[in-house]
Amino acid sequence: MPQSPSPIKISFELNGITQEVEVMPWDTALAALRERLGLTGVKEGCGIGECGACTIIVNGRAVDSCLMLAAQLDGCIVETIEGLAKDGRAHPIQKAFLDAGAVQCGYCTPGMIMSAKALLDKHPKPGREEIIRFMSGNLCRCTGYQQIIEAVDRAAGRDAKLEDAEDGS
């Protein structure tokens, strides 16, 4: 009779705190974060890497946690939406999304914000086309994308509406 797989113990930095958790070999990072660690800001949308609702940052890169095995988090630095606000104050990207009206039902918002953070961490002043390209991995059915692009522009320290007016758009 075959032996059933044993849990794997992994250790990683999660939002600045070292975590140790046991996962099964088939557990996704999404399942480990939501079910084992209670981080429900990481949303399950499609489960196939198409919608971006489950986006987290792993070692500085935006990744779809539904496509990553939990065991792959071992030794990594992981950021989720829960780690952004500090001392009860919204992160500047979160504030930019609120100010731009880029939040409707809110389901996709955590993934959008984490993608925006990964972009701005690497490229603090991205151009509009770069924002559009980078955010294309995140789907939203409620807002339309103009407010989302505007929010990322605001978080980068630019006023998208003002720049559009100056460009004659």
Structure explained in plain terms:
The structure is a single chain. Helix 2 (92-99) packs antiparallel against helix 5. It is elongated and about 65 Å long. It has six helices and five strands; from the N terminus they run E-E-H-E-E-E-H-H-H-H-H. With 169 residues, it is α+β, with helices and mostly antiparallel strands. Residues 162-169 have low confidence and may be disordered. The chain starts with 7 loop residues before the first strand and ends with a helix. It is 33% helix and 15% strand. It folds into two domains: 8-83, Ubiquitin-like (UB roll), CATH 3.10.20.30; 92-167, Orthogonal Bundle (DNA polymerase, domain 1).
Structure characteristics:
oxidoreductase activity, 169 residues, iron, five-stranded mixed beta sheet, metal ion binding, DNA polymerase, domain 1, (2Fe-2S)-binding protein, 2 domains, single chain, Ubiquitin-like (UB roll), alpha+beta, 33% helix
> How would you state the average pLDDT, rounded?
92
What's the CATH architecture of the largest domain? Answer: Roll
Treating each run of at least 4 consecutive H or I residues as one helix, how many helices? 6
Number of domains: 2
Short description:
The protein is an alpha+beta fold.
Walk me through the topology.
Layout: E1 8-14, E2 17-23, H1 29-36, E3 55-58, E4 61-64, E5 77-79, H2 92-99, H3 109-122, H4 128-135, H5 146-155, H6 160-167
Parallel strand pairs: 1-5
Antiparallel strand pairs: 1-2, 3-4, 3-5
Helix pairs in contact: 2-5
